[in-house]
Request: fold
Amino acid sequence: MKPDDFEFARRLLKERSGLVVGEDKAYLLESRLMPVARKFGLSNLEELIQKARSAPTNDMLVDVTEAMTTNESFFFRDTKPFDLFKEHVLPHLLESRAGRKSFRIWCAAASSGQESYSLAIILKEEGAKLAGWRTELIGTDISNEILARAKEGRYSQFEVQRGMPIQLLVKYFEKDGEHWRIKDDIRNMVRYQFFNLLDEPKSLGNFDVVFCRNVLIYFDQPTKKAVLERIAALMPEDGLLFLGGAETVLGITDKFEPVPGQRGIYRLSGN
Reply:
């Protein structure tokens, strides 16, 4: 890929998704964008970039963005955050929200749904404690293609083996040919919709808990700060934010601070 074409593609992705593509990732651009070029009847990346410069269609720009931002996910990823949610965060919500008997959770950058369905399964397992409660689980992503997969709730044997305990697989999934489909009662607990983290999220409403894991690592510092501060504006004083193991708020924003003794969880500062 020519240097000026690479720079154009980098700027396009940064503007549309916040994704920062380092110079050492040129190979990734080439491998992921060639199928997009072929889809639009173009023979190489040079033609795709030229088209994107001069007369892009919205479909083309969407496909270019989705090709670069579709990331893998798996059930109960890293385990510890989900243990913390079940053992510490959920009891806190049950106590602090007892008056209204409701709470809302946002899975930002939900990918193909494994994170949000993992949380739904935890809530289902704790169903006796949640009798009479209204819980909302919202999963958002920038990729319509990956959201369609999440809504379908259909996973390969390889995907369900990555983190899903066998007893929960048998309990909450049904065999569908060579795949596994999550049962409707779990699937219906999650609402998926398109959302770009670069946009203002107020239309999504307020959230008691936000999972924004393993996405900030793709952003530069100003973008991380802006995303975190927009999230903070949606949360009550005792709201909690989950980030990925390689992510932090330290040195980025003073809106959040770590929760002592609970790695990867952050609360609004001063609370």
